[in-house]
Amino acid sequence: MNRIIKTVSLILATSWCSYAQAPTPIKVNAAQPVADIQPTMWGIFFEDINLGADGGIYAELIKNRSFEFAKPMMGWKIERKTFHEGEILIQNRQEKQSSNPRFVTVTLNNTAKGDLGLTNEGFRGMGLKKDLRYDFSVMYRTANKGIKLHLELLDANNAVIGSGIVAPSESDNQWHKATASFQATATEAKGKFRVWFEGSGNIDLDMISLFPTDTWKGRQGGMRADMIQKLADLKPGFIRFPGGCIVEGIDLNNRYQWKKTLGTLEERQLIMNRWNVEFAHRPAPDYFQTFGLGFFEYFQLAEDIGAEPLPILNCGMACQFNTAEVVPLDQLDPYIQDAIDLIEFANGDATTPWGKIRASMGHPAPFNLKMMGIGNENWGPQYVERLKAFTKAIKAKYPNIRLVNSSGTDPNGERFDYLNKELRAMNADFIDEHYYRTPDWFLKNAARYDSYDRNGSKIFAGEYAAQSDKTVSVDNRNNWKCALSEAAFMTGLERNAAVVQMASYAPLFAHAEGWQWTPDLIWVDNLRSYGTPNYYVQKLYSTNRGSSVLPMLQNEQPLTGQDSLYASASWDNASNEIILKIANTSAQSISREVALEGVKKLDPTGKWIILKNDNLGAVNTFENAIAVSPVEQSIAVDTKKKKVALNLAPYSFSVIRIKAVK
Ligand code: AHR
Questions:
Q1: Other C-beta atoms within 10 Å of 145: how many?
Q2: Does 60 participate in catalysis according to the annotation?
Q3: What pTM did the predictor assign?
Q4: What domains sit in the chain, N to C, each tagged with a CATH number?
Q5: What is the DSSP secondary structure assignment for residue 544, as one 8-state letter?
Q6: DSSP per position, 85-128
Q7: Active site residue: 68, 87, 377, 486, which one?
Q8: pLDDT tens digits for 55-75?
Q9: 463 Cα nearest atom in ligand 1
Q10: How far is the centre of ligand 1, averaged over its atoms, from the C-alpha of 408 (Å)?
């Protein structure tokens, strides 16, 4: 008898869990929006890391075009039949032109094509495209007539796949610019560029440059269109720029200084990229910042793709993982002035000194800068005292500019707690939180912001990415497990849009042969680019943002991992749609009904976008760039009972859009 009772109760218990009672439906109430979702909510983080700018988005093909790398001939090879001492000479005019001191002097003596030349290897080769026109330019100075430069595009085997010629027209021994354009006759991922010299006498050369003409918006000397298109497709709310640790520099000398990124290219003083030497296991001795992509181009890019600019400035402190140098407080003024001047550069009219410079660069209208970050991953009382000085001066002149403050490198721990307290006491506009953590951390933290003060400082999740191995490990992969955990976590960001007003995955780009840090949102080689599963998660959020958060509850609780489900909902004013986002992080399909309350009428058919893969280790590659990518289908809506039935695939992230009348 006892055994029978036990068996029956076991059956009942099992049935209760799995079959007998349907799970409580999830309820979404469209009539009770709880917070606005800011247009800035989902943005992008750009840093010149992993060949993000030079060798990446900045489309210049010549590496070390002005011979300013630490080793002046890095990237260049001298081609010669016979050796003549000093025929290629690096000159340094430091005293006269400190922003671009070096140039090369070539001495010719009845030289014929094929006798003496220079070959540039590009950034891990050059991506060349059949039938595309390439624009060559060079600064030259000569007192001799009749010198010619024979220009050649080479494939990986040194076969010529495009050629042109430049015959300098001026021989007044002054600097001039010469240009030539020519087409590639073949596509090559590992191309090179060679110039052969012909004639007699000396010629000085500098700023040897080669650009493809299929740049973003066809701008001369512009950016790689396929990479920018990937950003534009995200419809980002903002662009954080220029980083990242690059803001801080290894030491203060190596910090990012926006004023040095303006004007003509030869005026922009190159510096070593801090990622050049950061990781002994990923050395990048040829990584420098030419600033061809400088602050003007940054503002222009933000405007092009409809994103708010969010520049991050040095706060008078170098990277605390490196030298940890600080500028003495009584010498902080120039740093603060840089911040104030940047606002004038962006917003001042053309009669202001910095507004005039912006106008002279081709943009008389203001860029409408509204916010700015002071410091990247800085911490400690030394940060707080510098930040206070910045805040006081900036707010005195520009009270409407909202400032982003750093909470350090980690989302918890002593440093974080100290800064969190200090910044909230200062009434910080935005606190910038960073988390490079395991997928598990992301799942466990889906409710992180549920308890944050609604009336205090707003949160900028300024850098985050799930790490499949551990932070800074070369084994980190952009796999589906990481992306799915981010998707689940981001339901918590959206649900808490009252507090979290901006978020950006980091880093953004990585060159397959030139990266220092992984994982990254978009991978590129010299010709191709692809979005990772993480990219598609970001895109699903940013292109399905909605205007206000709706409560989405099961048993009166938000879904933050119950039965492996994570969910949030929003209402979109523009399209009159309810937007549901649900991650199922389990290996099983899960069925749920979602009751849609607070609506008078629903469309019978909704749109269901699903990102899924049975394999949590799945990644996208150049060969299969869409292995993990969204697929779209329709979903039937029960318009009478005002509900939808969902069968959520294992390891899936769903976005569902349903038109409604409220
Ligand atoms: O995104 C890579 C680096 O991670 C950033 O430069 C820095 O801010 C963070 O530590």
A1: 13
A2: no
A3: 0.96
A4: 44-59+216-221+235-526 (3.20.20.80), 76-212 (2.60.120.260)
A5: T
A6: TTSEEEEE-TTT-TTS-EEEEEEEEEE-TTTEEEEE-BTTBEEE
A7: 377
A8: 999 999 999 999 999 999 999
A9: 1
A10: 11
